[in-house]
């Protein structure tokens, strides 16, 4: 995972809007969140997370065949954030695209990559959840600005003949709830006709989103477990979207599951949308709460309305000492990143040069045409 440098605590937040640490923490569980500075972007955070994931998986960029970035805050409408990251990594054999499914996006992305691997079209993919939510917040709206933070998380998926990995997934959507949580963009009538929503700022009906989340979390987890022919007793941990501690507590009660089985990073990161599940996964691994062959569950929910549950048998069978890879593999990765940077610069220079040559050639051609016409006229 990758985090911005700046931390914004609840006390810092009190200087921006009418709130305080006790009010925020008692209602959400959040103590702080990370906020991107002017140089940190959705793409740069995603790139950092992807590089770390490749190092953990002992994989070279040219082995990657697909890059998916789940985000609600893309660098551009197009080109995709995934394409930028693909270029910076030097993953010259990879296709790349962004996926928009709000806070469920990372689980959707894992499912898309899994299906591509199982079909035989690719063998290695990177799925990234990356967000700079701070850039779409109304910092005068206390109901939303206290909740969200910035960050990124990434995983590498590879095909294997061994049993394990993604066992099942459930992807769902209810478009009738489109107005409960969202951000208008360039094609929105809310922008075109200057309706109630502030341009490019998030709007949320917190109460309705809370009801939706507490209802579907338990249902979709049970559906995914049924598809995997497992029960809740077979699950080691649940890695949920980190929206609000109250939602996690409610889901644990509905599933009759000890709250300690739910990984919670809300206190330190806040809600990082599509990045929250991979970031929580990283924390769980760092804490030693996930081991080989453990059954874990991802559950995401968000704007759309969308939700997604997934059952995984963890299978990253790498020795801790070798996770950064042999020295020559690390060296090749660094060289690949360096070459990618210079390759991109060289291609831009060549494009500019060819453009200038084309312009000069066009002018010369016009001059010749003018002279020929003049000669004919003289004759």
Structural commentary:
It is a single chain. The chain has 379 residues and is an alpha/beta fold. It has two domains: 6-322, 3-Layer(aba) Sandwich (Peroxisomal Thiolase, Chain A, domain 1); 327-379. Helix content is 42%, strand content 18%. The chain is built from twelve helices and twelve strands. It has helices at residues 10-14, 21-28, 42-56, 81-89, 105-119, 142-145, 189-192, 206-227, 245-254, 266-269, 276-286, 327-378; strands spanning 6-9, 32-35, 66-70, 95-99, 124-132, 150-158, 165-173, 181-182, 203-204, 237-240, 295-302, 306-313. The strands form four sheets. Strands 4-3-5-6 form a four-stranded mixed beta sheet, with helices on both faces. Strand 3 (66-70), helix 4 and strand 4 form a beta-alpha-beta unit. Helix 3 (42-56) crosses helix 4 (81-89) and helix 8 packs across helix 9. The N and C termini lie far apart (76 Å).
């Amino acid at each position: 995972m990758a985090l911005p440098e700046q931390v914004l605590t609840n006390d810092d937040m009190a200087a921006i809007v009418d709130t305080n640490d006790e009010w925020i923490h008692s209602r959400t569980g959040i103590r702080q969140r990370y906020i991107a500075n002017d140089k940190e972007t959705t793409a740069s955070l995603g790139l950092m997370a992807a590089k770390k994931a490749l190092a953990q998986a002992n994989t070279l960029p040219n082995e990657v065949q697909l890059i998916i970035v789940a985000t609600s805050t893309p660098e551009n409408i197009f080109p995709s954030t995934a394409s930028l990251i693909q270029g910076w990594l030097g993953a010259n054999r990879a296709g790349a695209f962004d996926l928009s499914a709000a806070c469920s996006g990372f689980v959707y992305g894992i499912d898309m990559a899994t299906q591509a691997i199982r079909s035989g079209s690719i063998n290695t993919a990177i799925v990234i959840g990356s967000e700079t939510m701070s850039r779409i917040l109304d910092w005068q709206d206390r109901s939303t600005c206290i909740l969200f933070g910035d960050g990124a998380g990434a995983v590498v998926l590879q095909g294997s003949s061994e049993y394990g990995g993604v066992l099942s997934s459930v992807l769902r959507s209810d478009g009738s709830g489109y107005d409960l949580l969202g951000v208008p963009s360039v094609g929105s009538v809310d922008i075109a006709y200057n309706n109630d929503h502030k341009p490019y700022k998030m709007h949320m009906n917190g109460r309705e989103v809370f009801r939706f989340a507490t209802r579907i979390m338990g249902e979709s987890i049970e559906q995914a477990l049924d598809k995997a022919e497992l029960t809740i007793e077979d699950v080691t941990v649940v890695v949920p979207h980190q929206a609000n501690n109250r939602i996690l507590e409610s889901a644990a009660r509905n599933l009759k599951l000890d709250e300690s089985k739910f990984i919670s990073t809300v206190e330190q990161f806040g809600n990082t949308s599509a990045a929250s599940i991979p970031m929580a996964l990283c924390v769980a691994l760092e804490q030693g709460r996930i081991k080989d062959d453990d059954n874990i569950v991802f559950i995401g929910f968000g704007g759309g309305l969308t939700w997604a549950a997934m059952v995984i048998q963890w299978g990253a069978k790498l020795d801790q000492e070798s996770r950064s890879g042999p020295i020559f593999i690390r060296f090749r990765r660094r060289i690949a990143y360096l070459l990618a940077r210079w390759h991109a610069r060289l291609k831009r220079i060549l494009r500019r040069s060819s453009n200038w040559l084309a312009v000069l050639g066009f002018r010369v051609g016009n001059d010749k045409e003018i002279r020929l016409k003049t000669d004919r006229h003289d004759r």
